[in-house]
Amino acid sequence: MKFFSGFSLKNEKHLFERYIKKSEYNICGFSYGAITAFKSALEMINEGKRVDTLQLFSPAFFQNRDEKFRRLQLMSYKKNKSAYMEQFISSCFLPYNKKKIEQKETTAQELHELLYHEWSLDDLKKIEDSGADIEVYLGGEDKIIDAKSAKEFFLNIATTTYIKNANHFLQIN
């Protein structure tokens, strides 16, 4: 099993243990890491390698946001990275109390990739057509992404689990 971490995070896999399928042919990722997991699964399938399941936990989904939102995020990050990251992590936990998590250094390029990633139904279909299951998990109280728009998008291609009272980390308290 391969797990890809979210933007600025490391070692948060334990937060998703209840959902992760324990198989060497499972690829999963959280938020920004869901983008990397998706690209990794697509690459493996294109190389003829086996992928049984692609699990996307609160996938970074901003393709419904306008250019102004994206530019503002990048501008805020570049202006005061520390304040931006503090607000970002706090928002990941809302509406619940912030918990301690491990972080790593980030770059504006990573944030740009996260904000401008366009999920491709055609590429998701390639993964599905290879025989892999695609599972998407979303929190109804997510303050980072528009979980309802993401749900509408991914319902067309994936088994989508919408956890009504969960935050971006899929936690309920």
- Number of structural units classed as domains: 1
Main β-sheet, spatial strand arrangement: 1-3-4-6-7
Q: What oligomerization state is this entry in? A: single chain
- State mean pLDDT (0 to 100 scale): 96
Name of the top-level CATH class:
Alpha Beta
Global shape = globular
Topology, number of strands: 7
Flag low-confidence runs: none
User: What is the beta-strand fraction?
Assistant: 15-25%
Return the CATH architecture: 3-Layer(aba) Sandwich
CATH fold-level label: Rossmann fold
Q: SSE string, helix = H, strand = E?
A: EEEHEHHEHHEHE
CATH superfamily: Alpha/Beta hydrolase fold, catalytic domain
Roughly how many Å apart are the termini?
27 Å
Radius of gyration: 15 Å
Total helix count?
6
| Helix percentage | 25-40%
Sheet/helix structural class? alpha/beta
Q: Largest sheet at a glance? A: 5 strands, parallel
Written description of the protein model:
There is one protein chain. The protein is α/β, with parallel strands linked by helices and 173 residues long. It contains six helices and seven strands; from the N terminus they run E-E-E-H-E-H-H-E-H-H-E-H-E. The protein has a five-stranded parallel beta sheet with strand order 1-3-4-6-7, with helices on one face. Strands 2-5 form a two-stranded antiparallel sheet. Strand 3, helix 1 (32-46) and strand 4 (53-57) form a beta-alpha-beta unit. The protein is globular.
Write the layout of secondary structure elements.
Layout (H helix, E strand, L loop, with lengths): L1 E3 L4 E2 L15 E5 L1 H15 L6 E5 L9 H13 L1 H13 L8 E2 L4 H9 L4 H9 L3 E7 L7 H8 L4 E5 L10
Helix pairs in contact: 1-5, 2-3, 2-4
